[in-house]
Amino acid sequence: MRELVLEWQDLWIPEYKPRIIEPAVFENKVKKINLFTGCRRVGKTYIMFQIIDHLNKKMNIERENIVYLNFEDERIEWKTEILTELLPTLVELYGERDYYLFLDEIHHIPKWDRWIRRIYDRYKNFNIYLTSSSSKLSSKKIPYSLRGRTLTYEVFPLSFREYASFNKFKLSDPKKISAVQRAKTLKPINEYLNFGGFPEVVLEPSERKKKSLVQDYFRTIIALDICERYHIKNISLIHDYIKLVLNQTYHSTNKTYNTLRSQGISVGKETLLNYTGYLEEIYFSFFVQIFSPKIKDRLYYPRKVYFVDNAFINHITTKFSDDTGRKMENAIYLTLLLKYGYENIFYWKNSKGYEIDFIILKDKKANGLIQVCQNPSETSIKEREIRSLLNGANELKCNNLKIITKNFRDKEKIDGYYIDFIPLYDWFYDEN
Q1: Which of 83, 190, 208, 381 has the largest count of CB atoms under 10 Å?
Q2: How would you classify the pairing of strands 150-154 and 126-132?
């Protein structure tokens, strides 16, 4: 432990690109344990470094007061005793002082939560920051011993605003840009839709290496975050299952079970349900239910499936056609997730087959209806999207109607409802 602490002081933080972080994270006015959760490689560690840099340079916290440990360092044994050694080591090295502890991927250590609880309750001179790649540590699933003591921040890949900052692409107010300027926004938008927002991928200039990084992330997620964490022996089965899910727009356990069985793959439905839960727990996939007041409908109907980053859709799936509409929808879901939360996003479909991509709830009632349509210039496509919105508006008593397009802007009044056609750039600019 002494070696690790001293090494940290020598190395200090690497160069980083700043992310958009809530000011409350820096201020930490309420003495709480700060917990950052999210998928592997989304940038949780570098957000820690950004906070450390702020503490050191903006708040004049001395370097000796700040300690960072990465529990995926192969030199650290995953035993509770490693945590027990930390405090005596710090006191021996630097004496009694206010410490800022940054503990990366702490969930690997047995009984970590009980140790954190003891430190938090007993010592007032410790400020604690944690990361984990598991949604088991989200605000709803935090260990009981830490309830009421944590502030949880879910970290996702770069938003488009952050993506633009990383690439030194200046975002301009869409109300003030010309048609020529608007056309220039399509190139970065296409790149964002194709390669997503994993920071390392965004910063890599070579497309070949970008693809290689995405495939490496995928293999690592399967090996470490799923197989190792959940003690899965049949690696081939979980690999086939995830590949199948990546090629789905809607997910049904029964249909997935039948598909695998038809290919001669022996698997139980309970196993598939467990796999689905694992994908959610590691923030790889999100499964959106149909909007219905009946619980049985929400359980019976297939769920729409989205992923933590577009890169997996584009470079892991086996589809050969360019499905821009699906990539747009996935990117839009992530913006909605950040703004409204899991529990307020649904899709809608009625008995006539009309469907709406996103229903946004407020106080358990529909507060916004959103369709995603790449190119509404084709009359038949535009009429289909509008009919679905109007059917939903009438049934759900909602007049906030939007169609998000690739690059088409308009506002129309139809059957007493106003429908906003919003270009994707405008949506990213406003919603992020």
Answers
A1: 83
A2: unpaired
* Number of CB atoms found within 10 A of residue 308's CB: 26
For the record, the structure tokens of 5 come out as 């602490």
Question: Per residue in 96-123, pLDDT tens?
Answer: 999 999 999 988 899 999 999 999 999 8
Mean pLDDT score, 322-344: 93
H or E, element range at 27: helix 23-27
What's the pTM value of the predicted model, to 2 decimals? 0.92
- Distance from the Cα of residue 289 to its chain's centroid: 18
Asked if pLDDT for residue 28 goes beyond 80, the answer is no
| 117: in domain | yes
In a domain, 144, yes or no: yes
Task: Answer yes or no: are the C-beta atoms of 68 and 99 closer than 8 Å.
Answer: no
Distance of alpha carbon 132 from alpha carbon 229, whole angstroms? 12
Asked whether residue 79 is domain-assigned, the answer is: yes
**CB 291 within 8 Å of CB 366:** yes
Q: What is the DSSP string of 218-278?
A: HHHIIIIIIIITTT---HHHHHHHHHHHHT-SEE-HHHHHHHHHHTT----HHHHHHHHHH
Query: Domain tally for the chain?
Result: 1
- Beta-carbon contacts of 174 under 8 Å, excluding residues fewer than 6 positions away, are 182, 423, 425, 426, 429, 430
Residue with token string 């503990």: 103
CA of 391: how far to CAs of 52, 146, 197, 350, 388, in Å?
Answer: 51, 46, 35, 9, 5
d(CA 371, CA 357): 5
In a domain? residue 11:
yes
Q: Is 10 helix (H, G, I), strand (E, B) or coil?
A: helix
What does 294-361 look like in DSSP terms, one character per residue? -HHHHHHSPEEEEES-HHHHHHTS---S--HHHHHHHHHHHHHHHHH-GGGEEEEE-TTS-EEEEEEE
Which amino acid does the sequence have at 304?
K
Confidence at residue 140, expressed as pLDDT on a 0 to 100 scale = 55
Q: Could you read off the pLDDT of 359-412 as tens digits, one per residue?
A: 999 999 999 999 999 988 888 889 999 999 999 999 999 999 999 999 999 999
In tens, the pLDDT along 304-322 reads 999 999 999 999 977 656 7
Domain that holds residue 111: 2-155
Eight-class DSSP state of 39: S
- Per-residue pLDDT at 136 exceeds 70: no
